[in-house]
Design brief:
295 residues; 4-stranded antiparallel beta sheet; 6 helices; disordered N terminus; binds 2-acetamido-2-deoxy-beta-D-glucopyranose; iron ion binding; EC 1.14.11.2; membrane
């Protein structure tokens, strides 16, 4: 009799009823089928690393086919696909896998190697070379495309113009940089705030980084303020936090320092994390709002 005092859930009552077992079976099967389809949906939303992107690429470019388009006098007949991934809208940052071949990267490194000098900084009012020591510890050299007999820099420059749709003449010479063990570049803006640097003849709109080497560990390009993060914590400009982009030989990273109305995008703050293992080579192209990117 004691058993009668036990509270039975309606579910148990239902299952113990005469028609309960076949019905329960139907319910269970339904849940199983629903779960199966739900898992398929989720697995489509989250493509697995590497292989997933390769599959997406194939879907986009495997059946690339459109009618031959008439193009203008300044247009181009070729329609080579250039894959890219939006890494962030705040700041506007795009990633270009395999932007340049390893051979082109090697040619650029070889050319730059003989000309390296310690990198310098544009100084703000009141700053001196001594007071800014340690902020930028890489070595580098400025190289224009015409100084590269291999033609690699000219090829890269044309492709950068294509993906930014900003004419080549707006670019400064390439700044090819080498970061050795422990070397880094504390967070900074590429655009020059006139309040800090005085009036500017022209302004940097965007930056394109071509990674010329892999880095075993460290050396990421970081955006500490991505999507407004860390802006109100009294961020230490030497800290390596936020959105981090790991350098991969031949890959490109493009980000905009100015918003479309011309004001400096506060989220475009970025830096180079210290190299922990290996060596980092990168070619930087700063692109300005006026022609002739002379600094
Ligand atoms: C420019 O655009 C940004 C973002 O839309 C906005 O926050 C800012 O106030 C604008 N600046 C000016 C001067 O219009």
């Amino acid at each position: 009799m004691k058993e009668n005092y036990k509270v039975r859930s309606p579910w148990t009552t239902f299952l113990r009823g005469k028609v309960g077992y076949p019905l329960a079976l139907v319910f269970c099967s339904l849940f199983f089928v629903a779960g199966f389809f739900a898992s398929m949906l989720f697995s489509q939303d989250v493509p697995s690393e590497g292989a997933g992107n390769a599959r997406v690429l194939h879907e986009h470019f495997g059946v690339l086919d459109w009618p031959e388009m008439p193009y203008g006098e300044t247009g181009e007949g070729d329609s080579t696909p250039i894959p890219f991934q939006v890494l962030s809208w705040k700041p506007r940052a795009l990633y270009f896998p395999n932007f340049a071949s390893p051979e082109k990267c090697d040619a650029i490194v070889k050319l730059a190697k003989t000309r390296l000098r310690p990198s310098t900084l544009a100084l703000r009012k009141g700053e001196t070379e001594d007071s800014t020591k340690g902020i930028r510890t890489s070595s580098g050299t400025f190289l224009s495309a015409s100084q590269d007999p291999s033609g690699a820099l000219a090829w890269v420059e044309k492709k950068i113009a294509k993906v930014t749709m900003i004419p080549r003449a707006h670019g400064e010479a390439f700044n090819v940089l080498r970061y050795e063990l422990g070397q880094r570049y504390a967070s900074h803006y590429d655009a020059f705030n006139p309040a800090e640097y005085g009036p500017q003849r022209s302004q940097r709109v965007a930056s394109f980084l071509l990674y010329l080497s892999d880095v075993e560990e460290g050396g990421e390009t970081m955006f500490p303020f991505e999507n407004g993060a860390n802006m109100d914590i009294g961020y230490d400009y030497e800290k390596c936090i936020g959105l981090k982009v790991k350098p991969r030989k031949g890959d490109g990273l493009l980000f905009y320092s100015l918003m479309t109305n011309g004001t400096i995008d506060p989220t475009s703050l970025h830096g180079s994390c210290p190299v922990i293992k290996g060596e980092k080579w990168v070619a930087t192209k700063w692109i300005r709002d006026k022609e002739d990117g002379v600094m």
